[in-house]
């Protein structure tokens, strides 16, 4: 698995715990640590802080919603964060979901692919050139940024539909997936993103796959716990579409669950499917959930160090 970079999902249970987790992940040999940006701490703020507490590990967002932040200010925050963490930021962004954008924020979710395409065009220009002049259907932006100590960061798209895959490969630096199984990654997501990058003359894109993982001797209990923790996701159209493509009905159907050997084989299968980065979302389950989570962490760390 020498071509697969292995990271872990950050729990973000408070500022100090997040910083301790970042330090521990770096010391354990993980290549990356990914913070979600849902309804708790702001992921980019956590990364700016974690970057001061670490030296080597890549720190990524999975993902920051686009509709709620103008691309100029997303670029400003990303550049500032990347300066704070010494150039180790991977900026994962995505359009979120209609129920969030329209029902919670009161914004339009019309034509999300068009929105993301223009968003990335504005964002990348500001990250890479420090200025933009964009006249589109969604955004009309003229501006510039100068953030001392900042360097451009990779931009990854957390969009899963056909049009989003083309944006991820053709304009951005790759994709991040969730609720997406190995077969769909191998036969749908990866080929589409790589083809778009090749057509655009861009470097080979990153395919960052996040999946729930649990190393346990009680597989049935682990799968039940995973379905309980992740019960919301099959109700969201974009994730349901990915489960449908895989022939799955529940999050546990695509999770990596079992003993050390079977889970390690599942990670190797992702590498063979063309995944470049694995974001292990560790879920403890069974009689001692904390012990299962620690067992899972240890195996993932061994895989990251090439020891398993």
Describe the SSE topology.
Blueprint: E1 5-9, H1 15-28, E2 32-35, H2 43-53, E3 58-61, E4 64-65, H3 71-84, E5 89-94, H4 98-104, H5 112-129, E6 131-135, E7 140-144, E8 155-157, H6 162-170, E9 174-178, H7 182-200, E10 206-215, H8 219-229, H9 237-246, E11 256-258, H10 260-272, E12 277-282, H11 289-304
Parallel strand pairs: 1-2, 1-12, 2-3, 3-5, 4-5, 5-8, 9-10, 10-11, 10-12
Antiparallel strand pairs: 6-7
Helix pairs in contact: 1-2, 2-3, 3-5, 6-7
Structural overview:
With 308 residues, this protein is an alpha/beta fold. The chain has a single domain, classed as Alpha-Beta Barrel (TIM Barrel). Helices cover 46% and strands 19% of the residues. It is built from 11 helices and 12 strands. Strands 1, 2, 3, 4, 5, 8, 9, 10, 11 and 12 form a 10-stranded parallel β-sheet that branches. A two-stranded antiparallel sheet has the order 6-7. Strand 4, helix 3 and strand 5 form a beta-alpha-beta unit. Helix 2 runs parallel beside helix 3. The mean pLDDT is 95.
Task: Provide the CATH superfamily.
Answer: Luciferase-like domain
Query: How many domains would you count in the coordinates?
Result: 1
> What letter string, H or E per element, gives the SSE order?
EHEHEEHEHHEEEHEHEHHEHEH
Global shape: globular
* Low-confidence segments: none
Would you give the CATH topology? TIM Barrel
Query: Helix count?
Result: 11
Roughly what fraction of the amino acids lie in strands?
Answer: 15-25%
Main structural class: alpha/beta
CATH architecture: Alpha-Beta Barrel
């Amino acid at each position: 698995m020498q071509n697969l970079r292995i990271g872990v999902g950050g729990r973000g249970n408070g500022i100090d715990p997040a910083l301790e987790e970042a330090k521990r992940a770096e010391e354990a040999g993980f290549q990356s640590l990914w913070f979600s940006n849902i309804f708790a701490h702001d992921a980019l703020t956590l990364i700016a802080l974690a970057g001061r507490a670490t030296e080597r590990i890549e720190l990524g967002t999975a993902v920051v919603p686009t509709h709620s932040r103008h691309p100029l200010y997303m670029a400003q925050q990303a550049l500032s964060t990347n300066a704070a963490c010494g150039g180790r930021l991977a900026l994962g962004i995505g359009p979120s979901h209609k129920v969030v954008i329209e029902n919670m924020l009161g914004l339009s979710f019309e034509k999300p692919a068009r929105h993301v395409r223009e968003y990335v065009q504005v964002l990348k220009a500001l990250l890479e050139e420090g200025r933009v002049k964009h006249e589109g259907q969604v955004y009309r932006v003229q501006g510039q940024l100068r953030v001392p100590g900042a360097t451009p960061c990779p931009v990854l798209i957390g969009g899963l539909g056909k049009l989003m895959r083309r944006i991820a490969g053709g304009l951005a630096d790759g994709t991040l997936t969730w609720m997406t199984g190995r077969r769909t990654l191998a036969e749908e997501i990866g080929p589409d993103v790589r083809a778009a990058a090749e057509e655009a003359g861009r470097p080979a894109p990153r395919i960052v796959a996040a999946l729930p993982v649990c190393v346990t001797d009680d597989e049935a209990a682990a799968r039940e716990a995973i379905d309980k923790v992740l019960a919301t996701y099959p109700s969201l159209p974009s994730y349901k579409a990915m489960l449908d493509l895989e022939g799955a009905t529940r999050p546990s159907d695509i999770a990596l669950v079992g003993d050390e050997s079977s889970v390690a084989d599942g990670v190797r299968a992702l590498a063979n499917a063309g995944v470049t980065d694995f974001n292990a979302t560790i879920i403890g389950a069974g009689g001692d959930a904390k012990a299962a989570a620690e067992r899972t962490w240890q195996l993932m760390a061994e895989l990251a160090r090439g020891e398993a």
